[in-house]
Design goal:
- By secondary structure, this protein is mostly beta strands.
- The chain has one domain: Sandwich (Immunoglobulin-like).
- The protein contains two helices and ten strands.
- The strands form two sheets. Strands 1, 2, 6, 7 and 10 form a five-stranded antiparallel β-sheet that branches.
- The two termini are 30 Å apart.
């Protein structure tokens, strides 16, 4: 190898013939602010806590909106991704990670945009992230989202 030349990743690690990696596209801000989470049946004032909702969107560059919410009945975190670009139907996935302040810890899902969305004319997908109480045990009481788009070519 020539030490002067800067090699691309593809030159250093060539893929087998016919195999392609998805293109990664990042929004203007791939990380949300952290939100403090209340877990358990009773909040500080002795009443039930409101269900957790974490939101992220980049409607200009990626045309993508993400909501991860706690189902009040089951306590599970449900992630919904909506893309207003109809060309992404069955061609893209959103990488969505619930993160905390603990380094290298996350709960992540690759959510396929495989359903047409009649409301926006685009597409959407959903995934479960497990129980909120388990996420807090793993990640801590401050949670946020990291999101980017994977496009199959």
């Amino acid at each position: 190898m020539n030490p002067e030349k800067k090699y691309t990743l593809e030159e250093l690690f060539p893929l087998p013939a016919g195999m392609k990696l998805p293109v990664h596209k990042f929004g203007q801000n791939p990380v949300t602010a952290m939100e403090t989470v209340q877990v358990g049946g009773q909040g500080a004032a002795g009443e039930d806590h409101p269900p957790l909702t974490l939101t992220w969107d980049d409607l200009v560059k990626l045309r993508l909106s993400v909501v991860v919410r706690e189902d009040p009945t089951s306590g599970k975190l449900i992630g919904d991704v909506v893309c207003t670009d109809p060309a992404m139907l069955n061609k893209a996935s959103a990488f969505v990670a619930v993160v905390g302040k603990r380094e290298f810890e996350m709960i992540r899902k690759k959510i396929k945009l495989d359903q047409p969305d009649k409301r926006t004319g685009g597409c959407y997908g959903s995934a479960e992230f497990g129980l909120l109480k388990d996420a807090v045990a793993q990640l801590g009481t401050e949670l946020g989202l990291v999101v980017f788009l994977l496009i199959d070519e």
